[in-house]
Amino acid sequence: MATVAAVIASTHHPFYYKASTSSGPDRPPFADEWVAKITAFRETLTQARADVLVMVGSDHFHQLWLDNMPQFLVGKAPYYDANWYNEEREFGLPRMFVPGDEDLSAYLLREGLDAGFDLAFSNELRIDHSITCPLITLRPEADLPIVPVYTNIFAPPLPQPRRFVELGRTIRRLVEAWPSDKRVAIIGTGHLSLELGGPRQFGPHGPDPEFDRKAVGWIASGDLESALAEVSLDSLWLPGNATHGFMDFMLMMGVAGDKIAADYVDSLDLFHTMEAYFTWYPEGAL
Amino acid sequence: MSKYLLNKFLFTVDRDPDLVERYRQDPRGTVAWWEAESAGVILNCTTPERSTWLEFTPTEREALATHDYVTLFELGAHNFLLLTLFIALFERDYAEPLAFQREFAARLSHWSLPYPDIST
């Protein structure tokens, strides 16, 4: 059976690429500290010696649109083109090209459907920065095959937080039962408190530092009980109008397991949002 | 109210560099052209299949025609689409990084929760 070599959850900040590659007067004052933290975080995936990456993210109205919106979708394609014109325009993100693992995609779709998740699929998916940001931070070579999993955290009506957790648990169980000798890293990105297109956007910190402090604690300690008790679709508006992306963190808590503390925890208080980085090693700390 | 159509306008303009420039230069003309020619295009279908019933309300049409992002926010346009397109339209006019984004926030500062419903 396959091995879950690492479970990794983080924020995805589309400005990291630009900040980390800029120089001279264009280089922001926080860039060096940010790069140092990302370099250390990257090492947590490198050490896991993964063969395949299952990558959980959320399309930002690039390919998935309101005329035909899936709640959970698994990519099944041999390759994925990546990043879009408006991400190039706004964030300076490069176009990318990533191999896919169709066998694992097919397996997750079949078994996921049979486990009670009516997963949508795509045979031609152009992935966006919710998946390319963690590639840039964790595996910039983008050489490992991926299985993208998209969630709807964006276009109401959304699935309930509990459903994200259940999907995470299911992905973990299915990967562990995959008849393969491969080492799989399950990586997902979301948000802490975040406001986009509203009055609290782009402040000196995230819009709700108290929520961020609590959320980092829940994730780091695997405290799903508190997260599920305090988080609802309604409550997530309070920390910021884009905070529903926190449900992708909750999905990853489901992958990592109830009450399982992360082996690696780091964060960085940036303008506009707090960055946070978590890694679990199910085989035991490396 | 046709929030879906508002979002469809923002979405289709935001993904087309030529349309971004056209909407910046001539918002009223672009909105009129788009509503007549593109509003009914089903984005995942091949032409000539079209929807026949989509149209803006007068308030929505005027808000788009005047680049009035405060009113668009209040009408329930999707916050992410609204921000992304308006950054593309106007960030270039501001000398300081994030100055447009902060002005956008300030112009919405009279709003507290709950914000307008973005459900479609």
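qc> Chain A has a mean pLDDT of 97.
qc> done
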